[in-house]
Amino acid sequence: MSEAEAVTDEEPGIARDLTAFQQNILVILSEEAMYGLAIKRELEEFYGTEVNHGRLYPNLDDLVELGLVEKSELDKRTNQYALTEKGHEAVLDTLEWTLSRYVTDESRADEVREIVDEQN
């Protein structure tokens, strides 16, 4: 059984098993669907260094296999990647967990949760 088959829709916290690099890809795709080189440029801007194709595309393929990203063909040479609903939930799960660790003022935490809920 592949890792993608082992993951069910009911399994909470799939994002917690992803690498930071994979989580960053999901965050980038949460804004809009993009083709591979556009994702690469966004990551390079974030990291301040070149992102190798050999790192990017296997990670995109893993995210597709996990059902977090959908891959479609724009033309014969270009694939587009879009966040699935499951991918969107993974981004929100990571954000919620991160905020719960760093936001200690309960009223501020409630404000942040409201903002996250509005995005759903």
Draw up the topology in text:
Elements: H1 3-6, H2 20-29, E1 34-35, H3 36-47, H4 53-65, E2 69-73, E3 79-83, H5 85-102, H6 106-119
Antiparallel strand pairs: 1-3, 2-3
Domain Transcription regulator PadR N-terminal: 25-90
Protein name: PadR family transcriptional regulator
Pfam families: PadR
User: Termini separation (Å)?
Assistant: 32 Å
* Strand line-up of the largest beta sheet: 1-3-2
* Relevant CATH superfamily: Winged helix-like DNA-binding domain superfamily/Winged helix DNA-binding domain
* CATH-derived topology: Arc Repressor Mutant, subunit A
Give the class from helix and strand content and strand pairing: mainly alpha
Average pLDDT rating = 84
Sheet with the most strands? 3 strands, antiparallel
Q: Can you tell me the residue ranges where pLDDT is under 50 for at least 5 consecutive residues?
A: 1-10
Give the tally of β-strands: 3
CATH architectural name: Orthogonal Bundle
Count of discrete domains: 1
Tally of helical segments: 6
CATH class: Mainly Alpha
Rg, Cα atoms, Å = 15 Å
Shape: elongated
As a percent range, the share of helical residues equals: 55-70%
What is the string of SSEs from the N terminus onward?
HHEHHEEHH
Strand content: 5-15%
Organism: Halolamina salina
Protein name: PadR family transcriptional regulator
InterPro entries: Tscrpt_reg_PadR_N (IPR005149), WH-like_DNA-bd_sf (IPR036388), WH_DNA-bd_sf (IPR036390)
Pfam family, one: PadR
Overview of this protein structure:
By secondary structure, the protein is mainly alpha-helical. The chain has a single domain (about 5-120), classed as Winged helix-like DNA-binding domain superfamily/Winged helix DNA-binding domain (Arc Repressor Mutant, subunit A). The chain has helices at about 5, 20-30, 35-45, 55-65, 85-100, 105-120; strands spanning about 35, 70-75, 80-85. A three-stranded antiparallel beta sheet has the order 1-3-2. The longest helix is centred in the C-terminal third of the chain and has 18 residues, at about 85-100. The radius of gyration is 15 Å and the shape is elongated. Mean pLDDT is about 85; it is low at about 1-10.
